[in-house]
Design a protein that fits this description.
Elements lengths: L9 E6 H11 L13 H16 L8 E5 L7 H5 L18 H10 L3 E3 L6 H14 L3 E5 L13 E5 L4 E3 L1 H8 L6 H8 L14 H11 L2 H6 L7 H9 L1 H11 L21 H10 L3 H11 L32 E2 L3 H14 L1 E8 L9 E9 L2 E6 L23 H12 L5 E4 L2 H10 L7 E3 H9 L7 H9 L7 H4 L13 H28 L3 H8 L2 H11 L1 E3 L1 H26 L8 H11 L17 H7 L4 H25 L7 E2 L2 E3 L9 E3 L11 H4 L5 E2 L4 E8 L2 H9 L3 H8 L4 H10 L8 H15 L4 H8 L3 H14 L1 H17 L1 E3 L5 E3 L8 H33 L5 E6 L3 E7 L3 H13 L14 E6 L2 H4 L1
Parallel strand pairs: 1-2, 1-4, 2-3, 4-5, 7-10, 8-11, 11-12
Antiparallel strand pairs: 5-6, 8-9, 9-10, 13-14, 13-17, 15-16, 18-22, 18-23, 19-20, 21-22
Helix pairs in contact: 1-2, 2-4, 4-12, 7-8, 7-11, 12-13, 14-15, 16-22, 17-20, 17-21, 18-20, 23-26, 25-26, 28-35, 29-30, 30-31, 31-32, 32-33, 33-34, 35-36
The chain binds a DNA duplex through α24, α26, β16, α31 and α32.
Function: In addition to polymerase activity, this DNA polymerase exhibits 3'-5' and 5'-3' exonuclease activity.
EC number: 2.7.7.7
Family: Belongs to the DNA polymerase type-A family.
DNA sequence: TGATTCACG
DNA sequence: GACGTACGTGAATCAG
């Protein structure tokens, strides 16, 4: 039995979360050498614990000690105030799997490790401090968190371990201007932006302390607020009384947390050398293992076999066992699967790949799951393979022999796939996550080799698995064609024999795991960890949700439009044939060119590389002044486009069960960081022409809801003004002026009041030209003016806004020197062609000038999208679409205005706090029953 | 399969 | 001095 805690006892309480975050941010993202598991924070945490133990061995040593952690994200404070800690950045994904390891580390040091579901560490610390104080003992809280300062006094002190600074009653008074017993009063008034405690607007710690010292307590102050002399202060306190009282309840720590342990349980214990060294060795912390072994006077345990990979100069190829498809296991029963689950739990991570009947995640069915825990160690769990034998009626209905029941397998895998301590690694995980979501499994946390590759090497190469395996593993994957065939005879994966499927499928998981081991360490070496962790990794689940929601599209509207278009096209076609004097395929540019230039002898026919005449819209527009035929062809083409690409094709994309259209966003599609939308592309629904815009009327909200559209106003020009630092443009944006008119005024010396649409149009073309890496030729063609005149405009523009020319020169220079350019958020876009000879260099140069601007805008809306789900949590709203600078939501009609303001706030502040853009970001909002009305 | 055209930001 | 050019996408269609 241990002695009762009491006089003469000294309790140390360590704020575990503070240790973890300090450790995480102080160290580079180290990974365990043998397998790439992120362990940077664990390493820092262990070092801090070790230093703590070393420093507390003398006569002043504590008699009791515990490390206290937070547990669960929802506490009673969230019930009081739903915005409590709402502005916290989400925990970095590579930190999450390390949290359980810090618990194990604490236990390995044989220090009590305590947490209670639904309570903050601070409340547990408060409760223990109170108990220890009442028992007559001393307490030292190892933390610098000012929220804990209210506990100081009566034998309780704090210790800032970093600065080795003791904080007693005087220390608290120095910080807050009041004693510990009044700290909560001051905090209630001053608020706290970190925890999002509102407080009283305009009152900081200084003023708060002044007021509390004058009135004694917060309650007294609020009751007698009318006596305050300063009118503004008086008004604030009266108006915000409720908010202030709420704030006090938020900052007041709870001394009555129900504990499932006693002070006596926290008695200091000597560490067990074997346990401690075993843990440190398992983490592969060589230095610390050796140091502690030396101190204990024992031999350090031998490190496990380690690959020679890792470190800052991680090589691009890694020694691994050869890929051997014959070595993979087919899992056919629960016992086998249990072995794999054990392996995964032991490892802490697993590469996962799903096999399905198709490429459309909303319609494809699960056929099997592959797992890999180390290079060469992979399996395939077939679940939905159909019996290959048998003709006729029963052939495709029967499941093949030798498969687990799908429900049973998923039930076993679900706890692993959802375990936040087990990292799931995939190649294009969004696909697999959506398939599994439809099976009732929320896969998390995830790492994605495709996204890692994109963060590392956008612009250098594509990021599909076959290409990555070729490049980084020198391995050619089994082509899917070999299993499925091509064209009409193509079969679906469920018809592939299981033995063949195992070879192919398990290889995918094996390759994914290998790619992860090669690519993940490069993130840090190439300084794009932040890009991956803040712009890529957290976006994927947001996109998955949007895609699964889909948007409602009215089939009848589209169908009616298709018929109308068909009718008009028929009439136009007859007219065109009449004008041409013969029948031909209007849809064939080749035939059209021959009619126009050979038969009818029109001037200006230019042939392209293939020997065909160019008949693009700009050519036809010029010819339209001479003859009626090209004008009719333009009309016909517009209708043809609208019909085939939109009104016809969109109908085929309406999901039979949801009645909605589910696009797919390709996160690695555009080199600049923009998304691409496919199957169908919902980022190019017509809007510029009146006729086309009507297609948007078919995109509707559910009954009782509206579509809400928010778009950034001129975001790229604002970013240009910021990056190139153009005072005149910045001022125009600050003042909310019409930016194209302001540009025109500045360039041509026309006062704003006398601006004409024509002059403004020219300035607008130049503004866009600048973003695209302007050239005299390009501007001349766009504005249809002589090249010399266009060049004159550009010269004048550079003269008026000299920063632009500097930006262009510096960016080109940077691209040449480094092989890439970057956005304000550190995203890298590679520019390998910039050193090429000939016209290619021109292309690359302009792309390099454009990329930081377009890419920064893309980063900003990504940040907004990542924050949006939390911001609209609890509101009856769903984010459905992204169109580069626009987000579309579906919202209960009654809540539309509120959601619009919340979402606008998120979008306008999306760059904060990472980047301070010194031009305001402005978001315009619209709502309506359909997308045409909302836009 | 590649080139052409055209829808969007 | 000539080269040839606006930036970023996806889908449908024709023609080989």
């Amino acid at each position: 039995m241990t002695d009762k805690f009491g006089k003469g006892c000294h309790l140390h309480l360590i704020d575990g979360s503070a240790f973890i975050f300090r450790a995480y941010h102080a160290l580079p993202p180290l990974t365990r050498k043998s397998d790439g598991l992120p362990v940077g924070a664990v390493s820092g945490f262990c070092n801090m614990l070790h230093r703590y133990v070393e420093a507390n061995t003398g006569p002043e040593a504590p008699t009791h000690v515990a490390v206290i952690f937070d547990k669960g994200s929802h506490t009673f404070r969230n019930d009081l105030y739903d915005q409590y800690k709402a502005n916290r950045e989400a925990m970095p994904e590579d930190l999450r799997p390390q949290i359980p390891l810090t618990r194990r580390a604490t236990e390995a040091f044989n220090i009590a490790c305590k947490e209670i579901e639904g309570y903050e560490a601070d409340d547990i610390i408060a409760t223990l401090s109170c108990q220890a104080r009442e028992a007559g003992g001393r307490v030292t809280i190892i933390s610098s968190d000012k929220d804990l300062m209210q506990l100081v006094g009566g034998g309780v002190e704090m210790l800032d371990a970093m600065k080795n600074l003791r904080i007693d009653v005087e220390g608290v008074e120095a910080k807050f201007g009041v004693g510990p017993d009044r700290v909560v009063d001051v905090q209630a008034l001053a608020g706290d932006s970190v925890d999002n405690v509102p407080g009283a607007p305009g009152i900081g710690i200084k003023t708060a302390a002044l007021l509390i010292n004058e009135y004694g307590t917060l309650e007294e102050l609020l009751d007698r607020a009318g006596e305050i002399k300063q009118p503004k202060r008086r008004q604030t306190l009266i108006e915000h009384r409720e908010q202030i009282e709420l704030s006090k309840r938020l900052v007041q720590l709870d001394c009555d947390t129900p504990l499932d342990f006693t002070l006596e349980d926290l008695e200091v214990r000597d560490p067990d050398g074997e346990t401690l060294l075993g843990f440190l060795n398992e983490m592969e912390f060589r230095t610390l293992t050796k140091r502690i072994a030396d101190q204990m006077g024992v031999e350090p345990p031998a490190l496990p076999e380690v690959n020679t990979r890792g470190g800052d100069d991680a090589p691009e190829t890694v020694e691994m066992p050869a890929i051997d498809p014959d070595s993979y296991e087919t899992v056919t029963n629960a016992d086998q699967l249990a072995v794999w689950i054990g392996r995964i739990r032991e490892r802490g991570y697993v590469a996962v790949d799903t096999e399905t009947t198709g490429l459309d995640e909303m319609r494809a069915d699960l056929v099997g799951i592959c797992l890999a825990t180390e290079p060469g160690l992979a399996c395939y769990v077939p679940l939905g393979h159909k019996a290959a034998e048998g003709e006729g009626l029963f052939a495709t209905e029967d499941l093949a022999e030798g498969q687990m029941a799908e429900a049973e397998a998923l039930e076993m895998l679900k706890p692993v796939l959802e375990d936040e301590a087990i990292l799931k690694i995939g190649q294009n995980m969004k696909y697999d996550a959506k398939i599994l979501k439809r099976c009732g499994i929320d896969v998390a946390p995830c790492d994605d080799t495709m996204l890692i590759s994109y963060a590392l090497n956008a612009g250098l190469h594509q990021h599909g698995m076959d290409a990555l395996a070729d490049r980084y593993l020198s391995h050619t994957c089994i082509p899917i064609k070999e299993l499925l065939g091509t064209g009409k005879a193509m079969i679906t994966f469920d018809k592939v024999p299981i033995d063949k499927a195992t070879r192919y499928a398990a290889e995918d998981a094996d390759v994914t795991l290998r790619l992860w081991q090669v690519l993940k360490p490069q993130l840090h070496a190439k300084k794009v960890t932040t890009v991956y962790e803040t712009l890529e990794r957290p976006l994927a689940p947001v996109l998955a949700k949007m895609e699964m929601h889909g948007i409602k599209v009215d089939r009848d509207t589209l169908s009616r439009m298709s018929s109308a278009f068909a009718q008009k096209m028929g009439a136009l076609e007859a007219e065109i044939h009449e004008l041409a004097g013969e029948r031909f395929n209007v849809g064939s540019p080749k035939q059209l060119g021959e009619i126009l230039f050979d038969k009818m002898g029109m001037e200006g026919g230019k042939k392209g590389k293939t020997g065909a005449y160019a008949t693009g819209a700009d050519v036809l527009e010029d010819l339209a002044t001479l003859h009626e035929l090209p004008a009719r062809v333009l009309d016909w083409r517009q209708l043809s486009k609208l019909k085939s690409t939109y009104t016809d094709s969109l109908q085929t994309h309406i999901h039979p069960e949801t009645g909605r259209v589910h696009t797919s966003y390709q996160q690695t599609g555009a080199n600049t960081g923009r998304l691409a939308s496919t199957d169908p592309n919902l980022q190019n629904i017509p809007v510029r022409s009146e006729e086309g815009r009507r297609i948007r009327e078919a995109f509707i909200a559910e009954e009782g809801k509206v579509l809400l559209s928010l778009d950034y106003s001129q975001i790229e020009l604002r970013i240009l003004a910021h990056i190139a630092d153009i005072p005149a443009l910045k001022q125009a944006f600050d003042e909310g002026q019409d930016i194209h008119a302001a540009t025109a005024s500045e360039m041509f010396g026309v006062p704003m009041e006398e601006m004409t649409p024509e002059i403004r149009r020219q300035a607008k073309a130049i503004n866009f030209g600048v973003i695209y890496g302007i050239s005299g030729f390009g501007l001349a063609r766009n504005l249809r003016i002589p090249r010399a005149e266009a060049q004159g405009f550009i010269d004048r523009y550079f003269e008026r806004f000299p920063g632009i020319k500097d930006y262009m020169a510096e960016t080109t220079e940077f691209g040449k020197k480094n092989g890439y350019v970057q956005t304000l958020f550190g995203r890298r876009i590679h520019t390998p062609e910039i050193d090429a000879k000939g016209p290619r260099a021109g292309f690359a140069r302009r792309a390099a000038i454009n990329a930081p601007i377009q890419g920064t805008a893309a980063d900003i809306i990504r940040r907004a999208m990542i924050r949006m789900p939390d911001a609209i949590l609890g509101l009856p709203a769903k984010m459905l679409l992204q169109v580069h600078d626009e987000l579309v939501f579906e919202v209960d009609e009654a809540a539309a205005d509120e959601v619009a303001e919340v979402a606008r706030g998120v979008m306008e502040t999306a760059a904060d706090p990472a980047v301070r853009i010194d031009v305001p970001l402005v978001v315009d909002a619209g709502q309506g029953r359909n997308w045409a009305e909302a836009h």
